[in-house]
Amino acid sequence: MSAHSHDIEEGLSFLPRFDAAGLVTCVATDAATGDVLMVAHMNDAALRKTIATGEAWYFSRSRKALWRKGETSGQTQRVIEIRTDCDQDAIWIRVEQIGAACHTGRRSCFYRKVEAEGEGAKLVLVDAARWFDPAEVYKT
């Protein structure tokens, strides 16, 4: 193990490893229940804002823009704890989710279960109740 990888894996310096696009994957879970709410990406600015404000900030790959969770929908995430994995290329935030996490209006983005079907697979809805109507919240 090189000195640099030792610092990343065992040291106490926060040295996030962004990918070639300047992003790091972030998993958000409900601090109270442990449920996975969403997976998104952060660039350096989003990560810094999240740390500084205690609110979840992400980078939208489709819009190529920084966004604060809930800025449009009101469905915010107050950060309880931020962790990084062993090689600091992924972030885990434990949050207090206010309302729904998913832009589809559901509590979690993980509202479909994969089940085997013959030689393939199918999706089955689980915990799929909508907490809000996205058409009403995200009017253009």
Q: What's the SSE blueprint?
A:
Elements: H1 3-10, E1 24-30, E2 36-42, H2 44-53, E3 57-60, E4 65-68, E5 77-84, E6 90-97, E7 112-117, E8 120-125, H3 134-137
Parallel strand pairs: 1-6
Antiparallel strand pairs: 1-2, 3-4, 5-6, 7-8
Quick summary:
With 140 residues, the protein is an alpha+beta fold.
What does this structure look like?
By secondary structure, the chain is α+β, with helices and mostly antiparallel strands. The chain has one domain (3-103): Phosphoribosyl-AMP cyclohydrolase (Ubiquitin-like (UB roll), Roll), CATH 3.10.20.810. The protein has helices at 3-10, 44-53, 134-137, and strands at 24-30, 36-42, 57-60, 65-68, 77-84, 90-97, 112-117, 120-125. The strands form 3 sheets. It has a 4-stranded mixed β-sheet. It has a two-stranded antiparallel sheet with strand order 3-4. Strands 7-8 form a two-stranded antiparallel ribbon. The longest helix is centred in the middle third of the chain and has 10 residues, at 44-53.
Features:
single chain; about 140 residues; alpha+beta; two-stranded antiparallel sheet; 3 helices; globular
Beta-strand content:
35-45%
Give the C-level CATH assignment.
Answer: Alpha Beta
Number of helices: 3
Q: Round the Cα radius of gyration to an integer and report it.
A: 17 Å
Sheet with most strands:
4 strands, mixed
CATH superfamily: Phosphoribosyl-AMP cyclohydrolase
Q: Can you give the helix content as a percent range?
A: 10-25%
Please state the second-level CATH architecture.
Answer: Roll
